[in-house]
Each structure stands twice: as structure tokens, then as C-alpha cells.
Design brief:
about 0% strand; 2 domains; 8 helices; about 200 residues; Rna Polymerase Sigma Factor, Chain: A; Arc Repressor Mutant, subunit A; mainly alpha
Length: about 200
């Protein structure tokens, strides 16, 4: 009996399997869910046109990730040009994954997203925009999508150690920003004045 035949490559099947990870990569660059959706649509068209260039047996996620990053970078440059020309955009610039009821605090003391933190509240969205896109992508892929560091390294085309350090720095940057934000928003409660009963 000969070796088992390799499953034929079907672009749509692979794209669906890796969609969430690829979408997070796009989101980390454009920092906006609507733009990330547009990036994925454009990247899918480009990927379909170039699918004959994909080498069977290699990582589809890494190959498609490169296309998504390039499309997202072009989208971000275009948005910046539009911002310069027309002024402030009307749509939200914040990073958001879903809009369920926010948790009391989205990260632990060391900057780790809580295991129950499916939604990113406004504080987390603002904090994520303060992190560089590569670190942001590594953090989202690790925390939201649950990829291990080998998978992140493969998808982002960076060494495993770099992926680990990016997640580490991003977590601590989030913790520092959110802690400072909480401290700044804390307003001391004025002392309760006792009624003057003296006559």
C-alpha cells in the first residue's frame, strides 16, 4: 500500500479555519473592527487570486497572514491620508472584539486578560491603542485566540522569543496604563459634615 494521499488544498476551507486569527492580525494594525472586516474581504480576494502561489505542505496561516498584514498596512496608510485631508473620522478608532457587559476590571495585576474577559470595555480599547501593532497582535492572538507562542511566531513571521517578549511587554504596558487610569479617575470622597447641634 502506498503512502496516504495528501488532502487537496481548498482555499475557502483553510480561510474559514484561520479566519479568527487572521482577523485579529488585521485588527491589530487598523485598530477598528469595521476596517478589519474590510481588510479580511480584500485579503480573501487577493489570496484567491494568488492561491496557486501557495506551496502545499507549508503554513497557510503564515502565508495568508502576510497578505492580511500588507492589506491592513495599506488600509492604515490610506486612513491616515484621509484623516489629514478631511479631518477627524466619524467612525470609532478603538480596538474592540465584542460588546458584552464589561467586567469590573479587564486585566489582573500583572496585565493578563481575565479568563472570563470576552468583551473589551472602553478602558481596555483605549489601552490597546497605546501598544504598537506587533505587540498588540501577539497579545490578542495569545489571549483572545489562545494560540501558543510557536503558532504566533509562525503567523507573525517573528522568532518565538520575540513573540513571548511582545506579549510580556504588552501585558505590563496594559497593567501600567489601566492602573494609572484608575488612579487618575479616583476622586476622594469628601468627609461627611456633622450637623451643628450647638445652640
Amino acid at each position: 500500500m502506498g503512502p496516504p494521499s495528501q488532502k487537496p488544498f481548498v482555499f475557502s476551507d483553510e480561510f474559514v479555519v484561520h479566519y479568527r486569527s487572521l482577523w485579529l492580525v488585521g485588527l491589530s494594525v487598523v485598530a477598528n473592527t469595521a476596517d478589519a472586516d474590510d481588510v479580511m474581504q480584500e485579503a480573501a480576494i487577493i489570496g484567491l487570486r494568488k492561491q496557486e502561489l501557495f506551496q502545499a505542505g507549508t503554513s497557510f496561516r503564515a502565508w495568508m497572514g502576510e497578505i492580511v498584514r500588507n492589506v491592513a498596512l495599506n488600509r492604515r496608510r490610506q486612513s491616515r491620508r484621509e484623516l489629514k485631508r478631511f479631518g477627524q473620522r466619524t467612525d470609532s478608532q478603538s480596538v474592540e472584539v465584542s460588546r458584552a457587559t464589561p467586567q469590573a476590571h479587564p486585566v489582573s495585576a500583572d496585565g493578563r486578560l481575565l479568563s472570563t474577559q470576552e468583551a473589551l470595555d472602553d478602558r481596555m480599547c483605549e489601552a490597546l491603542t497605546r501598544i504598537d501593532p506587533v505587540s498588540r497582535a501577539c497579545l490578542l492572538l495569545r489571549t483572545i485566540d489562545g494560540l501558543n507562542y510557536d503558532q504566533i511566531s509562525d503567523l507573525m513571521n517573528i522568532p518565538k522569543g520575540t513573540a513571548m517578549s511582545n506579549v510580556f511587554r504588552a501585558r505590563h504596558a496594559l497593567a501600567a496604563f489601566l492602573t494609572a487610569k484608575d488612579s487618575a479617575s479616583t476622586v476622594p470622597t469628601p468627609p461627611t459634615r456633622r450637623p451643628n447641634t450647638a445652640r
